[in-house]
Amino acid sequence: MLGFNIMRKNILFLSIMFCALMINTLQAQTTKIVLKGIVSERATNLIMPGVSISTGKPGKVIAVTNAKGEFSVAVDEGATLTITYTGFNPQIIKLKADQTTLNVLMTESNNQLTEVVVRGYQIRSKETSTGSSFTISGDQVQDVPVSNVEQLLQGKVAGLNIQVNTGAPGFRGSAAIRGLSTLTVTGTGDDSFLQPTSPLYVIDGVPIDADKAAEYGYNTLGPGVSPLSLIPQEDVASLEVLKDAQATSLYGSRGAYGVIIITTKRGNSKIPRVRYTTNFYVNTPPKLRETLGGNSERQSKINHILANAINEDDFDRLTRTFFLADSLNDYYNNSTNWQGIFFQSTYNQTHNLALDGGDTKFNYKTNIGYSSEKGVIKNTGYDRYNMNMNMEYNPTERFRFFAAVNGGVGKQNKGNGSGLLQTGVASNGQASSLLPGPSFFQSSAGTLASLRTLNNNDSRNIRANIDARFQIIPGLWAATSVSYDYTSDNEDTFTPAAAANQFARVYSFNGRSSNLYNRNNLSYSKTLGTDHNIFVNVFNEMSKETGQAGLIEQVKTANDQFQGPLGFDAYFSRGGGVLPNFKNRHLASFAAAFSYDYKKKYIIDLSYRLDGSSLSGLENPYSKNPSIGFRWNFNKEAWFKDQSWLSYSAFRLTWGRNVIPNGNLQSIYGLYNIKGTYNNNPAIGIDYGAVPNPTLKPTTTSQYNLGFDMGFFDSRIELNFDTYFKKVDNLLVDRYLNNTTGFERVLSNDGGIINYGYELAVIFRPLPRSNPFDWSISLNGAINRDVLTKLPAEYNGQYIRRDGSQYIVNRVGKNTFSNFLIINQGVFGTDANVPVDPVTGLKYQTGGRFFQGGDPIFKDVNGDYILDNQDYQITGNSMPLITGGLSTNVNYKGWGLNIYGSFTLLRTILNNALADRFRIMSDPFDMRSVVPLDDLDTWKQPGDNSKYPYAYDYARYGQINPFRYDQTLWAEEGSYFKFNTITLSYRFTKQLAKIVGLNNFRTYISANNLITLSPYSGPNPENVTALGRDASNGYPVPRTYNIGFNVEF
Amino acid sequence: MKFQFDKQMIKALKYKPLILSLVLLSSVAAALTGCKKIFDLPEEKEFLSNKINYGNKVFEPVLGRTSLMGNLNTDNSTVPLKFEIVNARYGDGRPYNDIFQVQKTYVWTAPYDGLETSLAQIEAKRKLEDHPMFEVRSSGQFIMWQSSTNDLIAPRPADSSNLEQDKRLFDLKITNVGGEIILKNFQIRPWRERLYEPSTDINPYTGKTARDPNDPKNPNKRDYITPGFNNVIGVETNRGLVNDATRKDLVVYIRPFTGGTGNSLRFKFLGKDSLPINPVFFNETKWDFIVHGFNKVMTPQYVQYDVAYPIPVINLGTKYAPSGSQARSIFSYSRRGFGGTMTTANIELNYNIFKKGDWEIVFHFRRENPKFQDE
């Protein structure tokens, strides 16, 4: 986009010059008329300065529109005019006799081949690039306010799988390009967290690490603000997603998971202008659980107990359970809506002010933004303050200088949760409605912790970069770029005494990280003869990343009023100090790219990059990232010469490799740890958990891509198809050692995954360009299959992660992550349906109890008529098979309507939300609210043929465990189609805007996360962890309604 | 256009490259979709762990009883697993196959619950089926069926030796789709039949009467089955009866009798002179709950029921067999003791009888009869 603007400016400049020279010739001609008119853009109705109007063959520019988009020119009567502007479709208009006014609507050229792409920090024409990438213009991420712009990419790029699985303001969902790239699962059980493999983000030529805030999974320490959440969406000019290895290999190891390039806006107005954007929006919590309130809850529980008690003690226990029995007690005679206490609708706003001006020689831009989002869970929220400035200076054709400073502050309030998870809210939201509502002294500690914890987090980021380039001889450019990125993270939490076992608590975290980055490059482009074009690009990159964080925690402080200063006390201090995420990394890289094309018809790209990283094992510090690509623009062949229906067409074939060093200092050097005390002094010794492995190899991702691009009928139909084969080798896997070694395990490289898939993107514009309606439909979809290819030999092809309540299994030859569950085959209708062991004569049993009517039919896999831990089976696939999106866009005069949706198909979700709903019934004596199960197909009486077992048999629950998590009853199809956003906008005509003294005025209403259609019976098929477990006790994704205004002065 | 093609032909020609390219595209796509082989993906293999094993590989069942043995750890191998006993041989290599003879044996088709009201109801819940006397089922558990007898299977030597050539060894072949594994050297050492429990009066090696453990060399002294009892006072000494290591006042014989229905169980009480004591003296006995039997016949000599064998039929806790594994019969009587207090005496036996037939359980008061009279 950057080059795009430069080109645009250049043409503007040239045409003015040209025009001035031509003026004499024009005057010499006869039968002239004076033609006047305005040129404006069709989609936005905005006037267009600098548009060239030419006539004759070959075309001579006779006029250029002025700053108001007007032109006035003397032309021959009935002349044929060509109106051109870079990036727009040229218009050829034949004047009628005695026509003196001409108003022209220009349409933006949507032809993908005229797009520019970025490869190895160099702007290239898409027509001559071999890699697979997709560009999204900044317009597409404007009209819906979000705290993280990434979520608006969902469903827009085939092969980019984004799941907005948390609604926590300022946090990111998950993003992955082309399937699975890791086997590493951290955390246990329901909190199992798949190591994020987010793409590398390159913002204005500076790479940043989007996963930085997520390196500890759910239990992120510190504010956890993603660097992406600090980019104001209003400042985004374009986003480009690089998918295949040819495109990413020049970014080296960090590009292994794909690259997303964000270009921010540049100044572009001769007259300085001020643009102001504001959004006012409402976030509403999703539908909450329907609970019984007050007496109906009490009656429900009492009936539940009386109907299912087995022995006398169960009845007696009811009388001892005061909150049920003592209905006259004020304390137990309430009807509190606990969910209402935690959830709220919030009113939020954003303001963004952009000032820009300048021309090709010098331009500048300043963007000041403020956005404030209060979370739908009380006591959470995210505020962002931004100031981004850049300027570009081109004193001569041969020298260009660009400088930018971006500052951002993200202030986050996580409440008492960790942000992503709000388990405190989830469990307290389930409290019995009989309990009195919260007040400082009459409430559970958890409630107070959620509502009264003072939490103050902020991330402050400042990023400065300068970029200078100089043309030494024609075609040979030397450039250098330096950037410095500094982030400081702070978190202060104060928990009042009533919320923390009667003693107040303070917690303080501070961290800082910085990245100093330098890149120098030389590029040379040359056309040999007329047909042979070569392009060479050589660059090196250096970066030094440092980071350190520390925390301090003190419990049992004096009182709620006194938050400090606090002294040190060996007993009450919970320690702290420097956290193990200390970082001091060095990366030095050298890269070269060579590109050759013949008549822009046959193109070959070669590139090679050498990455030296201080993170690699000692044995091989350098990783090598080669790539090769071919492209054949076959519409340029002679036999397509007269085929005007074919706008463009190309085959692409690429191969490339990205090598990622994936060790850390511990895996290479081992770890010392505190091992008790010796002579009352802490003793430090070798940690025998893992033996260091200096031969650790880097993970290697090699990828083939075969692509096909076509545009038909003046690009009214455009089609991109890609198929790829991605092989990830040397993945980290723990190997368990024989205990004679003294160590427990060693980190090895014996894992491997293959992803292969197909991606299709189609854009269809049903109406011709001359139609005042501008309508486009775009559809994209990607199928990705992952196959586990390798595990350490001693695993014999299968590894089961036995932790938590739902096991994960990896099996070679199958999809990488499957569930290992007990198979549920329905419900025993009557006692007689329970099978009998022919040998012992005993009924099918578990935990010493026989199954009976109403109990679930768990498949007795091994045939011993006892359900135990031998009866698990592999089932399901937690990774989605198909992802994609659908979007339609209609513009008519000033009106615009955009509807866009995304889908994820064929994935298994374990509906733990439903499991929890049933499990509440396991203990009617518990002070939890009752969620009626009337809407579910449960067993009620002998003979019922139902889906869900009898829910109320609490007395036998402990043994039968009918609602155990590890069963396939919860494994549901997680396909969904989501209407992401609907935006309706109106741009006031120039005249109307003028009346209120504005240059331009546009207003829009939009809604985000509107409806999700899904067969899934849980609350939200997207609010799911990367391993396919329902994360409803995480942060729900709100629905947003917005009204916004764009004003230009 | 120079050529004089008609419009249709021009049209056809015009779109030919389009069609061609679409064909090309679809064939490429088809090649990639259809031919996964070019990806060289590993085949999914069903998992058969090489750590699959049994907790114990030596089985010592008692013949004549249904025993379910073997504690298999499949290490999460993919089911279904197929098990096959192979290479059954003695320690010196001679093959044996006597334990694999097919016999009729009872298998359960419906659950026994202890609430059946007739013998026919119990019998309706099981049926006779042909099974090898020793087999392995799909769970990997070994079964020694009740149909096994001393005659069909040679039990372990009566001299309690365990010579190599007498050891019965076999291997187990385990297969699933993923492969095959052979676990070697299982051993089966059957005990000879003991038709009832407790069997303290039987020598398990020889099947003959067990000798007194306090005087094992004396062929004239024997060991007994002893019931539990309390408050039983001797009629002559007025002192409590005693069973201990040296003195056995009340013993039990479990023995077959003739003249029953083939499903009979009889309870008998003998005095010191081996004359029957009338069961009505046990006035507090709940005769209906003594055993899960039907058609009670009470005579001065005995009480007899029609019962389903074995007793208990399955290992399930019922009111007749609270522990599940053994039936329990309690005989009680009350009398007025010293000072006019009511004392209740109980005689209790927990037992099994494994073979169908006419059995009697005899309580023998060896030294003196119990005192039923009030003080």
Automatic annotation (TrEMBL), chain A:
Pfam families: CarbopepD_reg_2 (PF13715), Plug (PF07715), TonB_dep_Rec_b-barrel (PF00593). The keyword Zinc does not apply. It is a multi-pass membrane protein. InterPro entries: Beta-barrel_TonB, Beta-barrel_TonB_sf, CarboxyPept-like_regulatory, Plug_dom, Plug_dom_sf, TonB-dep_OMP_SusC/RagA, TonB-dep_OMP_SusC/RagA_CS, TonB-dep_rcpt-like. The keyword Isomerase does not apply. Residues 126-259 form the TonB-dependent receptor plug domain. Keywords: Cell outer membrane, Membrane, Signal, TonB box, Transmembrane, Transmembrane beta strand, Transport. Residues 428-863 form the TonB-dependent receptor-like beta-barrel domain. It is found in: Cell outer membrane. Residues 1-28 form the signal peptide. Belongs to the TonB-dependent receptor family. This is TonB-linked SusC/RagA family outer membrane protein.
UniProtKB/TrEMBL annotation, chain B:
The lineage of its organism: Bacteria, Pseudomonadati, Bacteroidota, Sphingobacteriia, Sphingobacteriales. Residues 200-223 are annotated as: Disordered. Residues 1-31 form the signal peptide. It holds the Pfam family DUF5007. It comes from Pedobacter metabolipauper. Keywords: Signal. This is Uncharacterized protein DUF5007. Residues 209-223 have a biased composition (Basic and acidic residues). It comes from the Bacteria.
